[in-house]
Amino acid sequence: MVALASSLRDRLNALARAHALTRARPATDDYLGDPATTLHAIIQIILAPYDYSGGEPTRIAIDGPDAPVSEKAITPVSLLIYELATNAAKYGALSTPTGRIAIECTEEAGRLVLVWRENGAPAMTNEMIEGFGSKLISGTTQQLRADLSKQWTPEGLVVRLCIPLDSLAPSATREGGHDPGPDRSR
Known about the structure:
By secondary structure, the protein is α+β, with helices and mostly antiparallel strands. It has helices at 2-20, 39-47, 71-90, 132-143, 165-168, 171-174, and strands at 37-38, 52-53, 56-57, 60-63, 68-69, 100-108, 111-119, 147-152, 157-164. The protein has one domain: Histidine kinase-like ATPase, C-terminal domain (Heat Shock Protein 90, 2-Layer Sandwich), CATH 3.30.565. It contains six helices and nine strands. A five-stranded mixed β-sheet has the order 4-6-7-9-8. The chain has a two-stranded antiparallel ribbon with strand order 1-5. A hairpin with a 2-residue loop joins β2 (52-53) and β3. It is globular, with a radius of gyration of 17 Å. 33% of the residues are buried. It is an enzyme of class 2 (transferase). Keywords: ATP-binding, Kinase, Nucleotide-binding, Phosphoprotein, Transferase. Its EC number is 2.7.13.3. It catalyses: ATP + protein L-histidine = ADP + protein N-phospho-L-histidine.
């Protein structure tokens, strides 16, 4: 029971740390200034409770280019990654002691493509029951104007998420400039 409480506390703390990224700076109505964080940072914060075995990071690998994430995109991105992690902990690769997750990021035609690949998961089927988590994933992908596909393989779940880079952060911010936000002078 102590281990369960500790595990739950660690996962809630990870979500709280991701949420804290939205509170790191004063809230604004527009995308302003530098991005609040990066995609890799969000992934690392949320998956940290699952990544350690014997004190060394071993279960999670993130590869590929990182992408800035604006204040407006932090919450939907965090919720999406958190739900994938929760499902992996309940049913997938993180539910077994030897399970692993490899996350590969690439950029293709103005979109960030994130491939979440589980290895060492128990056998799964496409007939998994759709619950609140599925609705959360659907809502956040819609909010980000993203496309998401799932494929169950013998090794585990593979998720392909394609997010327009402008949904993560405006182009001026990604290029190191200042985005003044929408023109409100009219």
